[in-house]
Write a structure and sequence with these properties.
Chain A folds into three domains: 68 residues, Arc Repressor Mutant, subunit A, CATH 1.10.10; 129 residues, Aspartate Aminotransferase, domain 1; 239 residues, Type I PLP-dependent aspartate aminotransferase-like (Major domain) (Aspartate Aminotransferase, domain 2), CATH 3.40.640. The two termini of chain A are 44 Å apart. By secondary structure, the first copy, chain A, is of the alpha/beta class. In chain A, strand 6 and strand 7 form a beta hairpin. An eight-stranded mixed beta sheet of chain A has the order 4-11-10-9-8-5-6-7, sandwiched between helices. The interface between A and B is large, with 79 and 78 residues.
């Protein structure tokens, strides 16, 4: 394990050290009960004062990630972060080969197998245009088999970029094909932005909570992630402004429409404020748009990119969720100077998307079939949202609350304070039901009592069964908790 | 532009600064004639002494990358690195948005359009099994259209990994499917290894010269690249041993069979020595194998990975060149502890290859068709190699030499000392013929008088015409040079 400290950063060293350990503990790299290095040893290795190490350990203890046992040492807390059993024999190797992996919570929680999968915000295969894509492939290989023998352009196939540009113009984002870079899904989009613009000690601002895999990526560049709370209008601009008094962020990462995981929408007013703030603070905005087309009631506000007159906004869209995971395509839109750097990073990363997949999805945009598909997906997912709310209203114990999703794939559920959804998840695993524990969504100041439930990936029967069962388990869990604590029930 | 300095590194600060500038100048980011910051300003920004900056500038001047004009300042040399015209208006933005892109020479030279393309070591589309792949796709979408709606496993499709494991066993690499990670081509393979194991100040050892895109990737992690000369037996083990007296490298990057760009083969004896050396120096080996199956005379020595009893070797293979660029698939093989980290890095990078492409190439391995295809490719490229040698023998001016390729796609040609193949390339562009200037292949201590010619991507007619024309242009270039210098001809 390697800890990179940036002594020029505005982030205190103690906090950098805290973050490095927190990441790895939460990613399951240090099994519960494993011993941390001594204060003296760590201070020597990192060339900091022992006081700094003690401050870092204080922060870890406050977050209940470590516990200090007098006379014995300091240990990772014995709780179910769900350590990976197969890693325990790897411990020796872990410490011998220093690596630059900070945080891979996404991978950790992705591995949870389940019969009823509420943890992945993906669309049930039945809802995807598989037959249309299959048809597209058939015609493609008959008509143009030679594409299999060609490398695509690094920036992405020009025909696809033309079709995407047309699509974006329909979304009020006025671009041409040269403003677009095709990526391997939206994951790679975030990764390329991070590679280009973030390094050790740089600061990224996100919503609180936010998308776990994005936290992973930013941390893997050694950046510090500072999160800003939200309310019903999305990211709090007053809090963001106050943050700018102390810090100089490089990048603001936002998921403004049906925010992942909460579902909040950043209001039109706040989008304008965000643009002005970021520009005056010389800060880039990365606007991540996984599913703005999947609105259930009214269509959402204009994309931030549609109002980007300063040229500081990078727009990111993934097509895997709404079209075809098998093809794994996303794209970035940015002004020329920024996009050229992203293309350079893409070149280093993999020299361009495979051409085959780009040609496969091309007809769906060229024929405007995409609009019909999105309309159908909206209708189907709206029904699932309605059913989810109905079931929760019917079966959830009191003390449990949620945010009504106005679009997207997820619902953010809050349990009473003092609960821990990771513990709940281990009970749920016995029923083979999974969800995403909310703690994975916090870069810091972790809150333990939330969970994200994706209703997009299950059939109606599974939804019905799954939510009933989950509510039962929650009820039992809350009961057991209050008995354990000898307290009057929390509700 | 951001320069990251590692003050704990064994590499002197002046050299780190030199490298940062050299990378960007050679990548065309600083147009010819653009002015460098003053010594005082740079010293202040980087928090180093002015003497250190002057040392860095001395190194740049010695490499003819900058020139100091008394009373005016220090400028990028006025020579044809071939600055990108579209970048010049971007200069202001370039300096305003700091980025972490060190070196993208691969991208730069990839952009050279040409009627006769000797610069890309790829296979002419006619030589690829396009029809077989087209057939495979047809059957795939009829039989299993649902794969379009599925995310593949992050590590790669299990069926493909099983087929690849069988293939590797045939190559004497005893592995099982869990030892394999499927990547987006070999480019991503190098990138993932770099992300995992390299950071600012770490040292990578390569052959000298080596594959340009690999240098780009290592530099983009802030690593220092130290290269070791070769002879007819490949990387010089005596030089490598001596290097270990001074430095503690993290990784040795080698292309042992038909080395890119020289074509040299690392002998069996030296492969064993390399394994022992690396193990005792606690150093990883990244073995890059683009085309070992494409041998013209005798089959090459065993893969280094086949002899890896310590578990320190990471084996990398790309399938794009020999099978299908359109699918862009490669894979890494490593022992468990190392592979788990690579999988975590892959998760952050893009969460796994698209499933479609993996299923497309699967039958080619399952049916053992791959062996027949490689045999045909061997025969065809051997003919092109023979033709290339014949043409060079017939038309090349004296003073021009080359290394006889025993396999692979390239030939490494050396011009007389004092020539510069970048200048030659600009003359060749007028004939719409391209090649890769050798200077792109040197991390440092650049040699200017070589070029790499790929004979794999042209028809026989193009090969014949192209080499004749190139030899003519070389002749004219050498003549013009010696006239310019008022010297007796160099030959």
């Amino acid at each position: 394990m390697k800890i990179e400290l940036n002594r020029q950063s505005q982030i205190p060293l103690a906090q950098q050290i805290f973050q490095a350990f927190a990441d790895r503990i939460l990613s399951g790299y240090f099994p519960s009960g494993s011993r941390l290095p001594s204060v003296r040893k760590l201070a020597r290795t990192l060339q900091v004062s022992p006081v700094t190490v003690i401050q870092a350990f204080d922060l870890l203890e406050k977050q209940q990630l470590i516990e200090r046992i007098q006379g014995k040492g300091t240990f990772v807390t014995n709780r179910s972060f769900g350590e990976k059993e197969e890693e325990s024999k790897e411990e020796k190797t872990l410490l011998q080969i220093p690596d630059y992996l900070h945080r891979t919570q996404q991978m950790y929680y992705n591995q949870t197998p389940a019969r009823i999968n509420f943890s992945s915000p993906i669309v049930h295969p039945d809802l995807l245009p598989t037959n249309i894509l299959a048809e597209s492939i058939q015609q493609l290989v008959q008509r143009e088999p030679e594409i299999l023998a060609q490398y695509g352009e690094i920036q992405g196939d020009i025909e696809l970029r033309q079709a995407l540009a047309t699509y974006l113009v329909g979304e009020e984002i006025k671009v041409s094909p040269q403003d677009i870079l095709v990526t391997n899904g939206s994951q790679q989009g975030i990764d390329l932005v991070a590679r280009c613009f973030l390094g050790p000690g740089d600061i990224v601002v996100t919503e609180q909570p936010t998308y776990p895999a994005a936290i992973d990526i930013f941390r893997s560049r050694g950046a510090t992630v500072i999160s800003v709370p939200m309310d019903e209008e999305g990211m709090r601009m007053d809090k963001l402004t106050a943050l700018f008094d102390t810090y100089n962020p490089k990048l603001i990462y936002t998921i403004p429409t049906f925010q992942n995981p909460t579902g909040y929408i950043l209001s039109q007013k706040r989008r304008r404020e965000l643009i002005e703030l970021a520009y005056h603070m010389n800060c880039l905005i990365l606007e991540d748009d996984p599913w703005s087309e999947i609105y259930f009631d009214e269509s959402p506000p204009l994309h931030i990119k549609a109002m980007d007159h300063y040229g500081n906004v990078i727009y990111l869209k993934g097509l895997s969720k709404i079209l075809s995971p098998g093809c794994r395509i996303g794209f970035l839109v940015a002004s020329e100077g920024i996009l050229n750097r992203l293309i350079a990073a893409k070149t280093n990363a993999d020299m361009g998307n495979p051409l085959l997949n780009q040609k496969v999805i091309l007809p769906i945009f060229q024929t405007k079939l995409i609009n019909r598909l999105l309309k159908e997906l909206r209708e189907t997912l709206k029904q699932k949202r309605n059913m989810t709310i109905h079931l929760l209203n019917k079966h959830a114990p009191s003390g449990v609350s949620w945010i009504l999703p106005k679009g997207g794939f997820n619902i953010w559920i809050t349990l009473p304070k003092g609960t821990n959804s990771i513990d709940l998840l281990s009970f749920m695993k016995q029923k083979e039901i999974s969800f995403l524990p909310g703690s994975a969504c916090y870069p810091s100041e972790i809150e333990w009592n939330h969970l994200r439930l994706s209703f997009s990936n299950v059939s109606e029967n599974e939804l019905s069964y799954g939510i009933k069962e989950m509510c039962l388990v929650i009820r039992e869990y809350l009961h057991a908790l209050h008995q354990q604590r000898g307290q009057t029930p929390l509700f």
